Amino acid sequence: MSKRRTLSAIIMTLFLLFSCGGQLQAEKLAAENKNNFLDSLVKIGQGFQEIFGIFGNAIGDALGLTAVKSGDKRNKVGEHFKKIGNGLTETNNKLKELAGQMSEAKNADESTIKVVEDAIKGANEVFEKLVDAITKLAGVTNDSATDIGDTASAGAAVAADKNSVDTVIAEVKKILDAAEKSGVKVEKGNAGSPVAASNSTDATAVLAANAAAGANAGPKLADEVSKADPWAMIDKIKDSKTTAGNLSQNNHYDAGTLAVGTPNHANGAGAATNADLAAAVALKAMTTSGKLSATANEVVGVKAAGVSAVNKVLGVFDLIIRKTVARNLDKIREAVKEIQYSETTGTNTQDIQSTATK
């Protein structure tokens, strides 16, 4: 009887030892799994911060900086678009790398990983649309021989190339559509009042006169551009037509038609709104063949007005792109924050326990 009790005690002791050892091993394995999970999250977080930095550096760390200046050739506008496109492409490539890291995340709940992957996929699609549109914009603003806002000094204004203006309108529409679908509010802005073509000294003559614009028309155009709302300008470009044919001083036209229409009167042609006039100036100032009209002593001021109009368009354009990128990256960031640890990833809890106690 005594020997039997002793044997039972030994068996019980061994059982407890094995049970305790198995439990310790299971706890150690669980701790390692959690550490692996946290290490994965750190790597994902570092990759995500790098993505934010890449795009920030691509188009500058501050808004409101002038993209172009007086004396710049029109290809400076194209270079600006190209810089943004390159930044978006690099950002998109880094996002794809981040998507690859998702599959390597250890001990993460698969449903939460799927949410991140879907957010990245959505951002990829948006960025690819933006890059395509921006690349086309760069392609029609690449004249390296002509100044931004170039004038036909003491001569008639010259219509902008219709195909180039059509491209700008079409691609701006695509970018604004992508922005709005990403949750960015694209403002309509204040378009202002109609601008009449009553005299050859009016602002309208600089844009579309069939002879040299009269004295003081240049400063009047500069005033119109100065008070133009950039949001309204980009909105007017988006909604523009490019109706070919002679422009009439008695009618009021949209931005696209003002840019590509044939000058037919010394007074130029009326603009539907102040924003249409300023947007038309920007379109003529940066696309192929367009020229403004100015008296000889107002050439510099008219060119400066053209540059100002272009900078207004590019400024709001940059802001819309930034907001669109930020919205999509924020969706990914929020999804990353929700990644959860799972003890059952790759193997189930029972497997861990049974392996530990074998």
TrEMBL record:
PROSITE patterns in alphabetical order: PROKAR_LIPOPROTEIN
Signal peptide: 1-26
Subcellular compartments: Cell outer membrane
Membrane topology category: Lipid-anchor
Domain of life, source organism: Bacteria
Cited function: The Vlp and Vsp proteins are antigenically distinct proteins, only one vlp or vsp gene is transcriptionally active at any one time. Switching between these genes is a mechanism of host immune response evasion.
Record protein name field: Variable large protein
